[in-house]
């Protein structure tokens, strides 16, 4: 690099506290970019962050939360949180905080560039293309991106967003071996895992404005909600810690959410000029294992892993509960709101733990600091990786409206009936899928496709109605009556879908085939499939009618319902 080029590089500056770079949606529907200072000062007039990907929104939200937690040095408890919630101008002091740490928020600072390592380089001076950090350009599949065939340049604002995203969601795989990193072997560092948020089934609570969203997700370091590994006195974000070098820091546990939300999982340095960013050096940073971080990470649910317990010789081991891209958020309601709490002394540890975030909101509701009629959107965001975590195959983004009365510890019947309502829907859709299977079998055709289509249709239609029903629970005085109303809705909706399948059944399905069910022969045709379906649907929704019960040919006694699973057991499917 010539002296002129070096001087030009040193002259670059992009101050994230004052330059617009965070994309947001105003309450009026306008999309704009704002600086950190503007986002906090106008948070009450903003609807939400709008990232290039949902995962980018999650990464930027956690960055904002780290700023707010550190600026407030809290919230310390529910009383402190309530003071912030009641103060419309609670973020006014964040501006002074940003002024104090302004130097660490310069994207091109000579010594401490934001979320980067000054002077980072490989032995041969290679600079990678920007595809390495821009996650909406799939590796090996550039034609599925609007940026096809690649990314030649980014604006400073875009580059800042993708740096935050890289620390949170970067893929695994072989990275550049940078000078000073003792993990490098022949210029390479072999796979060490994805960015921290990539391990999570990310969850956050979304309010009516960005101000409400930020406050709802600000959790106090309270042991009462399971955040037992939080050391509030030592919890600092990356910009208040010594600048990282090219190698990994000594292995340590996160000290709290400020530390965790800004964890430096990568070593990065942008290459830029006056026209934008044109390259990047990307290496591995500080490792962080996902096992047993439930005492510090509040924005994911957790599952117990017997495999990890055996491997590490631990009594209990919890891993983040990742999202299933094929399963809508409303169907996973139980993982968000089920109050499993701490097991009694001597009792077996729970198989699943809900997000600590929602345990915190439950505490706010139970203590009367948050009105139990308040409605939030529980957003779920996550990345699904493929090919040994070296590529992002799919991004999950869904939501479910949640009346916070469902989290009230002394009104657990609301949560119980809501979770049971999901079971009602799943059982009904299973009956619909079995109907499609039986109709296909009666016609002598393949059944997997019709079954999958019927189930997808059932869940899609019921999902819309369930979200409306769930949102209305806050105004309901009798959750048991509300559940009965939901069962009625499910019965009507799925009955209508089933009738459509039966009406479209072929002549061959009405003629049928001879099968064996429980060691007895039956003539399976559309008529019998309909009778099985109606009885099973009525049973799972509490609306079974005697006239719908299948009978034998001889004695008139009710015959057990024969769903597709029973037919498969007998070897007919």
User: What would the average pLDDT be, to the nearest integer?
Assistant: 89
Ends distance: 69 Å
Strand order of the largest sheet: 2-1-3
> Beta-strand percentage?
5-15%
Low-confidence spans: pLDDT under 50, at least 5 residues? 140-146, 340-345, 552-561, 565-573
Number of strands: 15
Structure annotation, total helices: 17
Residues in helices, as a percent range: 25-40%
Q: In one word, what is the shape? A: globular
Main sheet makeup: 3 strands, antiparallel
| Secondary-structure-derived class | alpha+beta
The whole-angstrom Rg is: 27 Å
3D architecture notes:
A 3-stranded antiparallel beta sheet has the order 2-1-3. The chain has a 3-stranded antiparallel beta sheet with strand order 6-12-13. It contains 17 helices and 15 strands. The C terminus is likely disordered. The protein is an alpha+beta fold and 573 residues long. The relative contact order is 0.09.
Describe the protein's topology:
Blueprint: H1 3-11, E1 22-26, E2 31-34, H2 36-41, E3 46-49, H3 54-72, H4 78-86, H5 94-100, H6 156-169, E4 175-176, E5 188-189, E6 202-206, H7 210-216, H8 257-261, E7 266-273, E8 276-284, E9 302-304, H9 306-312, E10 318-320, H10 333-337, E11 352-353, H11 356-366, E12 375-386, E13 391-403, H12 412-443, H13 448-471, H14 479-503, H15 507-511, E14 513-517, E15 520-524, H16 526-540, H17 564-569
Antiparallel strand pairs: 1-2, 1-3, 4-5, 6-12, 7-8, 9-10, 9-11, 12-13, 14-15
Record keyword descriptors for this entry.
three-stranded antiparallel beta sheet; 573 residues; disordered C terminus; alpha+beta; 36% helix
């Amino acid at each position: 690099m010539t002296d002129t080029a070096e001087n030009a590089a040193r002259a670059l500056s992009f101050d994230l506290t004052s330059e617009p770079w965070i994309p947001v949606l105003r309450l009026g529907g306008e999309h704009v970019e704002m600086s950190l200072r503007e986002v906090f000062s106008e948070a009450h007039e903003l609807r939400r962050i709008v990232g290039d990907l949902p995962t980018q929104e999650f990464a930027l939200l956690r960055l904002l939360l780290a700023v707010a937690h550190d600026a407030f040095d809290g919230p310390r408890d529910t009383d402190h949180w309530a003071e912030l919630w009641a103060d419309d101008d609670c973020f006014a002091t964040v501006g002074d905080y940003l002024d104090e740490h302004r130097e660490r928020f310069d994207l091109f600072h000579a010594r401490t560039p934001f979320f980067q390592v000054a002077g980072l380089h490989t032995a041969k001076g290679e600079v990678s293309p920007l595809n390495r950090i821009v996650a909406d350009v799939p590796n090996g599949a550039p034609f599925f991106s609007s940026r096809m065939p690649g990314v030649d340049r980014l604006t400073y604002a875009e580059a800042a967003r993708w740096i935050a995203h890289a620390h949170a969601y970067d893929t695994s795989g072989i990275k550049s071996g940078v000078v000073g990193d003792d993990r490098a072997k022949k210029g390479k560092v072999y796979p060490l895992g994805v960015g921290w948020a990539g391990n999570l089934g990310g969850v956050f609570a979304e309010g009516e404005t960005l101000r409400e969203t930020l406050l709802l997700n600000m959790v106090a370091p309270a042991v009462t909600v399971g955040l037992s590994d939080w050391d509030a006195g030592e919890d600092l974000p990356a910009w208040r810690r010594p600048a990282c070098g090219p190698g990994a820091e000594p292995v340590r546990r996160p000290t709290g959410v400020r530390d965790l939300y800004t964890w430096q999982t990568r070593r990065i340095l942008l290459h830029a000029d006056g026209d934008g960013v044109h390259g990047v050096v990307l290496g591995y940073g500080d490792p962080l294992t996902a096992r047993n971080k439930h005492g510090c990470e509040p924005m994911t649910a957790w599952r117990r892993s017997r495999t990890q317990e055996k491997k590490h010789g631990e009594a209990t081991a919890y891993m983040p509960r990742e999202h299933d891209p094929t399963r809508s958020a409303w169907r996973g309601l139980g993982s968000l709101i089920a109050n499993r709490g701490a097991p009694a002394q001597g009792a077996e540890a729970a198989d699943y733990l809900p997000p600590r975030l929602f345990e915190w909101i439950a505490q706010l509701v139970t203590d009367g600091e948050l009105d139990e009629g308040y409605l939030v959107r529980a957003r779920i965001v996550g990345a699904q990786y493929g090919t040994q975590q070296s590529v992002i195959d799919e991004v999950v983004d869904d939501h479910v409206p949640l009346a916070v009365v469902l989290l009230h510890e002394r009104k657990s019947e609301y949560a119980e009936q809501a979770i049971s309502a999901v079971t009602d829907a799943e059982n009904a859709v299973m009956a619909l899928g079995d109907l499609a299977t039986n109709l296909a079998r009666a016609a002598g055709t393949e059944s997997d496709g019709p079954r999958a289509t019927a189930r997808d249709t059932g869940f899609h239609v019921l999902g819309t109605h369930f979200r409306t029903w769930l949102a209305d629970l806050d105004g309901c005085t009798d959750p048991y009556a509300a559940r009965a109303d939901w069962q009625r809705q499910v019965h009507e909706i799925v009955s209508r879908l089933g009738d459509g399948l039966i009406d479209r059944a072929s002549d061959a399905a009405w003629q049928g085939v001879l099968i064996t069910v429980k060691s007895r022969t039956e003539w399976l045709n559309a008529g019998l499939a309909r009778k099985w379906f109606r009885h099973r649907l009525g049973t799972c929704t509490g609306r079974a009618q005697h006239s719908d019960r299948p009978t034998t040919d001889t004695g008139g006694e009710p015959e057990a319902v024969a769903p597709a699973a029973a037919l498969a057991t007998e070897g007919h499917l």
